[in-house]
Amino acid sequence: MEPNERIEILLNAAPNSWIALSGDESAVVGRGASYEDAVKMAEEAGESDPILIKTPEDWLPLVLA
Fold first, then answer.
1. Which of 15, 25, 38, 52 could form a disulfide bond with 30, CB atoms 3.0-4.6 angstroms apart?
2. Please, are residues 10 and 53 in contact by the beta-carbon 8 Å criterion?
3. Mean pLDDT of the region 11-38
4. Among 41, 37, 35, 36, which residue's Cα sits nearest to residue 54?
5. Please, which pLDDT band fits residue 30 given cuts at 50, 70 and 90?
6. What is the 3-class SS of the chain, one letter each residue?
7. First-to-last CA distance in the chain?
8. What percent of the chain has pLDDT over 70?
């Protein structure tokens, strides 16, 4: 998966949700409102060890001091 594809997936995902990628990061194999939902979808798609990404509540820039 190209970096631009990953950015597009993240920007189009529901806020505060989970996205499951295949182990080789080539495809989205699940998504859901909870970690468990995304893992369940990934397992149903045949992916036993997905990579999970949590989307932020919003995309506002953060300043850390």
1. 38
2. yes
3. 94
4. 35
5. very high
6. CCHHHHHHHHHHCCCCCEEEECCCCCCEEEEECCHHHHHHHHHHCCCCCCEEEECCCCCCCCCCC
7. 33
8. 95
